[in-house]
Structures
1.
Amino acid sequence: MGRPKKIKRRGQSDHPGVIISKRVYRSGNVGWKARWEDPDTQKTHTVSFEKLKITSAKKRKEWAEDLSDTLADRKAELLAGAPVVEPGDLSKAIKDYFKRKEVESRDSTVKRNKYALSHFTEWCADNGVRMTTDLRPPHLAAFRAWLIAKPKKHAVKGEKRGTWLAGTRKRAPGSVNRDLQGVRNALNDLRRLGELPHLDSDAITDTLRAVRNQTPMPTFLQTADLRKLLEAAEGHDTATYVATRAELKGKGLPGETKRFPAITPFLTTVLLTGMRFGEAEGLTWKEVDLDEGLIVLNPERVKTAMGRRIPLDVSPAVLRIFNALKLQSGGKGRVFGSLTRDSAEAARKRLMGRTFKGPAFTWQQLRRCCGTFITNSNIYPGAGPWLSAKRLGHSVQVAEARYVGALTTIDPEAKSIEDAMGITDLLASVGAKTASTA
């Protein structure tokens, strides 16, 4: 008799609880799927690796191992007495999340997070993730990869207004990170409410980690460009129509009607105070104390939710502008009246156009100019970075990292921000011009 035939034992799986199966379709294409049982509901779930954009055997194995570990941890929690979590509708949970956020967050924050979550809900719908108990770390990792690869959309000429189509360019890392942050915020909120049993804070942070992004040097306007900008703003504010219909009919002299609302007062205020656009645009007379020479911003109007004081003793041009505007408005309502973001943006584009030939700029750049010139000047000897940070409403570390050493040509005798910027002469009569153009 020969030796008995050795029985071949089936090896233990590297990902117990998760079965990877192969299917060959009639077309000859090969598909791969994963199948597992939910510890909470005992229901079987199946997902296609093609939908998850996982195409290599190595990646399939890693995905299954991560899911297997998650299932094992959850089973251990249930054995230790953790309560069984009933599955909930994921889309409803996200809607409820926004109802809570609308109470405690700014409209702009809610709007930004809704845009971020729209990508997430789109991916979940395409990949069969419909219940809160379906979400697991591998899903989040697959969503992150999908979001990074998602092409940038662009407007199409000739199409209906608001029509956007996907192009060939990838979205900027900053845009991707903003969306990832919004999804992390929402998932952590749901996790704290106990609606995501298979996710913890570490898993959310790790699988939805930010994309590495290059940080360019902050750009700001030098003295020559600032002078050109103020000259363009003066030309903008004094531009008149050749003759209006009323003037041609004898009501007033031709050439007296201003073409555009004045922008110099607002532009100068943003430049010399360092306020964010929204802070300056919504500034009210209740927040301005001309006797003390202070702007006091309340927490609810500040991006960081930390109120701050902006002294005007180092920006006398702003004091002259405010005095002129207060005489006209009687000190009631908003400092800049009917100015809106749309009207300010229209003025900004006109300043940069062929008519007024001003330098390219953004409102954020003007804020950055203020921080750069204060930090590198002797206006506050030995305390420039600290008081610059207090004025602009960010950390001292930001002031030191972005502004210190950016300028070395500032007049050491400068005692005001306009002196440091070299624009004092252009702003000498800004109060009188404000009174005449407003």
2.
Amino acid sequence: MKKVKSILISQPKPEGKSPYFLIQKKYKLKIDYRPFMHVEEISAIEFKEQRISLLNHDSVIFTSKNAMDHYFGMMEKLRLRVPDFTKYFCVSEAIAHYLQNFITYRKRKIFTGEQSLASLIPVMQKHPESKFLFPCSDVLKIQTHTSLEESGLQYTKAKMYKVVCSDLSDLADVKYDILVFFSPTGIKSLFENFPNFDQGDTRLAIFGSTTLQSVKERGLRIDIEAPNKKAPSMSMALDQYIKEANKRKR
């Protein structure tokens, strides 16, 4: 295992405290942050092509702040007023609190899950008469959500924004010891920017089963995988790997 001196994380730089900052200080590394994908809004005309009536849904599912931004943004584009009786189902408390940017929070019916869509399903099933709208990206629009499919609930996926590969051409001659990925779209962006990417000694840190599958399909080597039994988070997996790779030879 070669010593690790530099890491590129394919996400925006964290705000506030982060375990990655501690890893950087602990091992005296260079850690850069660079989103491999970015979000773009869609036009009202593009949305209308889906033939979805927003006001025919009395409940909205939010799995991200992006989805919330673009849902309320689309309502504004279409000059629609969000009904006061609309119920909001958010996958986490943090996303629920973000609603304060758009509505009078204390006057609305808001329900939360425990960090995942699956944890939100039982809460939603207490409202079987509701018609749910699921604002999402073009990527999520085509994915199957088993928990939703099996819930028996009435829901509609609505593409509100699109995920686009970022321009990474300035990284063409920059080398990192470890590249960290959290989604299949990050792998897609890597090859869209660098079609002839040769892994060589570059180590890949991969989070999640879908990302793992995407890497395997590309025939790449996976050096660090999370979550695992010893490391439920990517930061813990990196810490354990670097500790082993950077230890001094006796």
3.
Amino acid sequence: MNRQKPKLAVHKFSSCDGCQLALLNLGEPLLQLPDLVDIVHFAEAGPCESDAEVDISLVEGSISTPEDVRRIRQVRENSRFLVALGVCATYGGLQALANFNDRDAWMSAIYPQPQRIDILPTSKGVSDYVKVDLQLQGCPVNSAQVLNALRDLLSGMKPSVAIQSVCLECKRNGVACVLVSKGEPCMGPVTLAGCGALCPANGRGCYGCYGPSELVNDASLAHRFEALGLDPQAVTRRFRFIANNAAAFKAAGDRLEGDPHER
């Protein structure tokens, strides 16, 4: 008996396409993906059936316009499982930096006719508007995690997600702590694992791309950053960077900005 393969869609919202490119750059595993699913929509790769009913939808990008809101609700209605890919889809991403500023002033400074730009007052993640079955963080997302999650969903299993911090990945990979050895400001102690400690492995501090880990001791890390010479504004910006709209990072940034001496 021939069984119909599950259908997969990959949707893009307000983003840079980086998470889709992470999938396209998989190489051999990408060529094997059609053995598992029927890809009915993935505009970056060719198929374009955005309104198709599917078993799994992978969604990249933040919700930043009224049209995004309409589309994500339609995607949710058409999908058995909806997976948010990357920090834009999970937390709003870099677009959410505008949430802390005067959007109207920014629009006026960039566009000659800003009144023609239809945009929401804030940029947020997908889960602020619809039910999300699984969130996979990253900037870009870890493509191997995406494949594992797809296999788990297709097998009827609940995908496992990391809850520990990047620091544990550094230890597992034998990477020297850049915070200790180089005095490099690093968000690794409060950031979710999943990237393989990419930045520390190259001698740079973590930027917090994967959002907050299970336990976030922002007060202690803020003190450490100040001891390294960062002023209060610079410390605040560390939490208000790529995953700035994640609840724990947003709360830390608001607290630091509100009273830099009360931590």
4.
Amino acid sequence: MDLIERIIKEGERRVAELEVCLSSGYAVTGRLKRREIHYASGSEHQGLSLRVIHEGRIGTSATSNPERWEECLDAAISSARLATPQNWKGLPGPGKFDHAPLNFDPAVIPDPGTARGLLEGLIEGAEAYPVEITSATAEVSQSSAVLANSSGIRYSERETMVSVGIEAIIGQSTGYEFDASCRMDIDPRKVGEKAAYLAYASQDGKDIKSDRYDVVLSPVALSQILGSVFVPALSGKNVHAGRSRLAGLLSQEVMDPSLSLIDDPLNPKGISRCRWDGEGTPARRIGFVEEGILSEFAYDLKTAYRYGKESTGSAVRGGHGGSPSIGVHVLSLDGPRCNVSEDEVVHVHDVVGAHTANPLSGDFSVELSNAFFMREGNVEFPVRKAMLSGNVFEMLMETAGLSRDERVIGSMVLPEIRLKNLALIGN
């Protein structure tokens, strides 16, 4: 805090407003090659991000060495001089919050023993099927961050994170699975077993004819498609810049009337919960889509001020010392729950190429990974090779229910979703 106060004192002498984000942390990482640990490391990180505002001009700079804060401040001020002035109504002041950590578990200890135990659990789980482990990773970390500004904000938070991932192979068939939590509640054996199952069950895949099918997307596949197309379309910046298919559709139906898309920063299932956003604005529940009706867009301060709106507390920071940008905190999809695998469906665990989707039109074409043709909840055969193509916005207009179980995927908490009459291109 002494460093932050020095930075703010110097910044106030030179510019109208200053924002400081200082982060630090420690992580232990272990990696497997086949069934042996071939890499292990302990790493510390620090990050300092500064944002200055003077006469409506905004400048930013960041460094991984906070001791060089004076150079970082100079760089931020220099970048502000080159910026185009915009309407600016000031950084937020302090609010009243419960400062108890939301994403911190004292049982998460970043030490070699913890990482080794997670890797051993992955190996044990993968032994449920006769597969080889190609690679696996386990990481345990603790971090802290302080957000402060010249308007009096002094917020601090602590976070822990545990993550594992493993890839298995048998013949030409592979399977990958992962999990992450801010608590020590991950079951690495379950993760290892799922990866091994995906590889084992995907053997001897059969061709599927090109036709229209009901398709069930796993939370993994759904998160990729939502994250590539629908979430960017909810950004106020994209809306006002003409880069969103949803521009001009507020209060209109943009999804199946049974579905709601909600960003709740206090969702207890999330691993990125928060009480304030990356700029210190109070974070709140945002009902982007309520029963199919588009209700809100996401705004940070810069975008809100530019277009005469209010911030929705949607600023997020990426990486250590990253600058704020529009994002989501804990995004969830809600609607009627049912057995999504009844009758005949093609179940898709993952997709390849979602990042190539057109974020403006919503058109996409992806390759299916670990896909299975199922009848009455049972796997009939693995699909050898197929492509799924269509339009994200159109396919979400007519759905057939969500699974009862949900899964955390990054900043999303998602169920499986059954989509009706989608075009699959077989081999």
